[in-house]
Amino acid sequence: MMTFHDMVSREDVQNAMELFDGCAAAGEILYKPFQDAGAFEAFFLHRREAGLSVVSLAAEDGSAFASGCYAADADKGYITFVAVRPDRRRQGIGRAILRELEQRLAAVSGGMAKRFEIIFFNPMNFVWTVPGTDGHEHPNAPGVDVAGGGYLFLKNCGYRDYAYQNSYHIALSEYQIPADIQQRISILAEKGMEVVLYDRDRHTGLEELMDSLDNELWKREIMENAAQPDGGSPLLIVSQGGKAMGFTGPLSVQENGRGYFSGVAVHNSCRGNGAGKVLFSMLCSTLKDMGASYMTLFTGETNQARNIYEAAGFHIVRTWADMRREEKCK
């Protein structure tokens, strides 16, 4: 009977990293390979986030490893990764190490973890590479890749889908604002609205707008950015008579060339006029001008925001399943 232990030795780390990177090289996973044992060990063994308990297990013969975590602010464990060496698959090892991981997570949680999930809320997020691109990356995977073998494995282990996330991508090198969006810009102008860069000396109502959107993460980032002595990173707004009625940003270009923004939203009173689609297309154009080579994002399958992204020219490059299993181990 196969036994599993905490992944602590250098040999455990090396075997696990080679297995992970081998899966990436074979195209079985989209995750970016580690290639460096120190980085791999830091990710799976030495996390220091407050309230986070990480469990990483290795098979006694080095044929498999699994990792997950329990966050103290939740009543569930998160499954991060499970892998079995190709020559040892279909022998029950993957199922066995997953069950051992679930039991260990339930134990470290003090019995609080009654549910296990694979979802973007997992604090341990992998960078993944968009297929068919020149190394374009996204900073986290929002679930289980439905095109990968892990999806069926988890289904066979009792995990069930409860939501789907679509990852979108666009290359910005030749981005142009679509013709129909240009028409919407003219329509907005007729109604006294325009999309412009926010200027705290000229525009009002930003904090009022953020309060109306009821998103504390957005509000904190946007207001802290706007309060910077130099005005902070660029922020686009829908301006109506100088008052902020929508936003997107703050805008920045990451080291890998990815254009970043925190969020996009329009005040209820301005919806239905295409302001959101104009705002987002202007976002893409501005990031291109700032030097971004691409953008990636994800949203729920049923989220109406997908209409905005698709109108701007984004395409779905991957679909992910959010999955869960109720804990049955006693």
Task: Give a description of the structure.
- The longest helix has 16 residues.
- The protein contains 9 helices and 17 strands.
- The mean pLDDT is 93.
- The radius of gyration is 23 Å and the shape is elongated.
- Strands 1, 2, 3, 4, 5, 8, 9, 16 and 17 form a 9-stranded mixed sheet that branches. It has a 4-stranded antiparallel sheet with strand order 10-11-12-15, with helices on both faces. A two-stranded antiparallel ribbon has the order 6-7.
- With 330 residues, it is α+β, with helices and mostly antiparallel strands.
Gyration radius, in Å: 23 Å
Average pLDDT, to the nearest integer? 93
> Terminal Cα separation, in Å?
20 Å
> In sequence order, what are the helices and strands, one letter per element?
EHHEEEHEEEEHEHEHHEEEEEHEHE
| Shape verdict | elongated
Q: Count of helical segments?
A: 9
The amount of beta strand, in percent, is 25-35%
How would a crystallographer describe the biggest sheet? 9 strands, mixed
Q: What is the helical fraction, as a range of percent?
A: 25-40%
Give the structural class. Answer: alpha+beta
Question: How many strand segments?
Answer: 17
The residue ranges in which pLDDT falls below 50 over 5 or more consecutive positions are none
